[in-house]
Amino acid sequence: MVEYSALIEPDRVHSAIFTSDEIFADELERIFYKYWVYVAHESEIPEPGDYATKWIGEKQLIVSRSKDGEVGVFYNRCRHRGAAVCMEEYGNATFFRCPYHGWTYNSAGDLVGVPYPSRYAELDKSTLGLAQVPRIGVSSGFIFASMAEEGPTLEEHLGLAAGFLEDFVKASPTGKITLSAGTSKSVFHGNWKFVGMDGYHTNFTHKTVLDLRQRKAGPNFQRGAGNTDKSANESWDLGNGHCRLDLTGRDKIAVGVAGNTAIGAGIPDTPDGHAYMDSMVGSYGDDAADVIRKSRDVHIHVWPNLQLIGASVRVIRPMAAGRTEVLSYPAMLDDVPESINTTRIRSFEWFSGVASFGTPDDVEVFERNQIGLQSDYIPWLVLARGLTPEPVDDGALVGNVTDEVPQRAQMSAWLRAMTNEGDRG
Ligand code: FES
Question: Which residue is closest in CA terms to ligand 1's atom 4?
Fold first, then answer.
């Protein structure tokens, strides 16, 4: 029996939380099989009959849209003797037929066919549909599931984070994104909690990125200036483990957006760039420049497993104490000129893909972290940077970008979950 309150202190944590198999098993039960966990985006199953298979921890799920258009999240487990009924990652089907003995379920999860039924004395098909995950919720098109019958609503769990999900999709003039440009997948030998919002590592782990940016920008490049203790950039604790980095220097740097002409702020001065800007002004009026700034500013971790970073959606799947899968999806904007989305894919490939200049260095350092943590003669890790973040009006806590505000926010939510105290509300 682990005494969790002995492992987390206000300014340090015990390394067993990253290496212990017993703690990992408890994390699955107390966090991933209980809290609201992101499973899919609505755009992955746009049509009736569309489905996608996803994972929460060790449990595989089918996220499906029925012929009536309803989204369902089902455990991928036949009600006969338990075989997984669907092994494709994506598809469209009117039914799922179990490969073992042929029991067949429709896209709403109902059992609709059983071979040779006469040998059953009694078989009430209406009670033998695929088991549904007890609770499903959607926020800005992001589908979440909770395996707990009861608990805080999705709205209560997301709290301040919901507004940032909305900001992310409002990069589209119609407020819609589509995850249609493929998935970058990787598995690393490290703990799932390493994949966080860390504004302290950038100038060191991402030296290659800075070298390349400097080569491109020339001698006037202010190398790494946004990632120091003197930067106007910030780290935020949004409550319930959700946290973010603000890399635009909130209210201090105009990020190149002047009035409603954002051309030059990453939006190309081309006919497509102007068409995009015009449609944003058409949708959001005088707020268009601010909407664009906020949509470019999203750098958020929705605890425990979803991150929105730049133009991408990143999903974290814990597989073992020392093994984690990360899936990254470039988010395409609906109703924009094609070249705007091409630019988003290029930027994703540059930093976030498995063969990019950014993510491989993160993965390398995560694996070194896991190696280092095995040598636990002195097991405590220091999380003491910026211990007194400032509260802002909406209840968030804000520190310098290099502060360990996000790490402490996550550890605090983790401790509440592991001691069954729940969301802070
Ligand atoms: Fe599925 Fe038998 S296990 S039909």
Answer: 101
The phi and psi torsions of 340 (rounded to 5 degrees) equal -65, -40
pLDDT in tens, 23-63: 999 999 999 999 999 999 999 999 999 999 999 999 999 99
Query: How remote is the CA of residue 96 from the centroid of ligand 1, in Å?
Result: 11
Residue 108 lies in a domain: yes
CA–CA distance, 402 with 229 (Å, rounded to integer): 6
Model confidence pLDDT, tens digit, residues 232-249: 999 999 999 999 999 877
pTM confidence score? 0.95
CB atoms within 10 A of CB 156: 14
Domains held by the chain: number: 2
Question: What is the domain-level CATH number for residue 352?
Answer: 3.90.380.10
106: how many CB neighbours lie within 10 A of its CB? 19
Q: Which amino acid is at 285?
A: G
Of all protein residues, the one whose alpha carbon is nearest to atom 2 of ligand 1 is 101
Q: How far is the CA of 97 from the centre of ligand 1 (A)?
A: 9
- Report CA(106)–ligand 1 centroid distance (Å): 15
